[in-house]
What does this fold into?
Amino acid sequence: MSPRPLAGIIAGAARLISGVNVRWIDTTPDPRQTVYFANHTSHLDFVVLWSSLPPEIRTRTRPVAAQDYWEKGLRRAIAVNIFRAVLVARRKPQEGQTSPADPRESIDHMLDAMGNDHSLILFPEGTRGTGEEVAAFKSGLYYLCQRKPDLRLVPGYLNNLNRILPKGEFLPVPFISQLTFGPPLTFRPEEPKAGFLARAREALCRLRDL
Amino acid sequence: MKNLEPQLVWAFAGVLGLLAVSSLIGLILKATIKKPEVQSTIANLNARIGAWWIMSTIFALTLVIGPIGSLVLFGLMSLLALREYVTLLPTRRADHRTLFWAFFIFTPLQYCLIGIQWYGMFAILIPVYAFLFVPTRLAITGDTESFLERASTIQWGLMICVYCLSYTPALLMLKVPGYGRPAKLMLYLVLVDQLSDVLQYVWGKLLGRHKIAPVVSPNKTWEGFVGGVVTASAIGTALWWMTPFTPAVAAAVSLTITLMGFAGGLTMSAIKRDRGVKDYGTLIKGHGGILDRMDSMCFAAPIFFHIVRYFYVR
It folds into this structure.
C-alpha cells in the first residue's frame, strides 16, 4: 500500500475504468530520476500513467500541473494534497490571469520538486487535446533538460483516454485503453530548441502505431 | 445450502472430473510433444484449461450463492463485454453521454428487472425503450455525422452484450411446474453451449481440414463443426435428467443450442475481421476477451429461454 491511501484508491479506480493495458517497448521501469512525458487528452491521463508505474517508482513520481487550472478548491485538494502535483504557471495565461509567467521560475519549481530522487510526469502539449493529433510541445521540457542534462526522458503514449473522459465531461465511460512506454530520449546540449522538441514529439507519436 | 439440489451436485462433479482429465492431458501433451511448431498450440491449450478452472469456479460459486450471485456475475460480464465492443468500434465525441446511459443506466436496469422478476419489461427494455432512447439522445447532441451508423452501433452492442447475454440468468425467473429450482436449467445451457465451443475446437484441432468460412473465421472447419455439434448434443441428451425435457427433447434442444452457439461465434468473428483484430480483449488467458468466450452464449441463451418458456412454463 502506498503511503497515501486515497491516491492508491483513486489510482485503482482509474485502472478499473480504463482497463489500461501497459506496454514497455525497448525500455523497462527504472528507479532513476526520470521525466515521463505523455500526450494529453483527459483528466485521467496522469492518474492512469502514474498508477501504471511500479509501486516503488510511483511513490517518488509527481505530476506537473497547470497552476491556473488546478490551484483552487477541490481541484487543488486533488492535485496538491492527494497527488503532490507540482503547480507551474503556463506561459500563455488563461483568461482571468494577466501576468505572463516567467518560464525560469517554473523550471525552478520542477527542479525543487524533483530534489535528487523524485521523477516527474509532464504533458508538454500544455493542455488537453481531442485525441486526434498530438499538438506541438511547449518549451518547458527543453529548459528542464538544459538545467539537468542527465535526466532520463521516457515517452508514454496514452490511447483511448479521450474516449473515457474527454475534455468537458465529468462522467467517465469505460473503454479499454493502452499506455505504451518507449525507449528513453537523450538530450544533446548542442541541439536547437525547436529540433529537440520536434524530436521528443516524434518519439512519442511513433509509439501510437507500435 | 438449499440451492444445492442433487442434480446440480452431480453436474458440478462431472465438470470437476472433466477439468481434472483435461489438465492431465494438457500436462502429458506438454511433457511428450517437443515439436516446436506444435508447442505454441499446446501452451495455448494449457492456458485455456487454466482459465477454465477459474471460470468454472466463479460460475459455480455464484450459482450456489443464488440468483443475486448470477445476476451480479452476468451484469459485470455484460459491462465488460460492452466495453470490449465499444472499444473496437468507432465512436464520436458526441456519443459520450449516450454511452454513459448504455453502461450505467440500461445495463444495471436490465439485470434489476430480472432481479424483481418483471418479465414484461425485461423483454422490451432494450428492444423498445433503449431503441428509441439512443437515437433521440444522439440527435440532441446535434452531431449528425454518420448518425444512423452510430445509433445502430450502440443499439447493437446493447442487444448483444446486455440484452442477449442477460437471458442466461433470466432463466432463473422461469418456474417450470414440478422441476424444482431453475438454477439447473442455467447450468445446463452453459454446459452444453460451452462444451460445444470446446469440442468444436478439439475436433477442429484433431481432424480439421476443410474450412467453413476462411475469411470470417480461419479456425472453423467442417470437421470441427460437425464433431463438436454432434458430441455436445450427445452430452446434452445424456444430461436430460437435469432438465424438464425427455431425452428426445433434450437432443433437439441441445442441437439448437449448439447451432445457435455456432451462429454467434461466426457473427462475432465477422465484426472482429471487419475491425482487423483477432480477439475482443485479453482478459481471459488463452481465450481472448469476455466477448470471445460469450459470443455463442449471446445467441443461444435467448432462443433456449423462449423454448423453455413457451413449452414448459404455464
In short: The CA atoms of residues 109 and 125 of chain B lie 9 Å apart. Residues 68-173 of chain B form one domain.
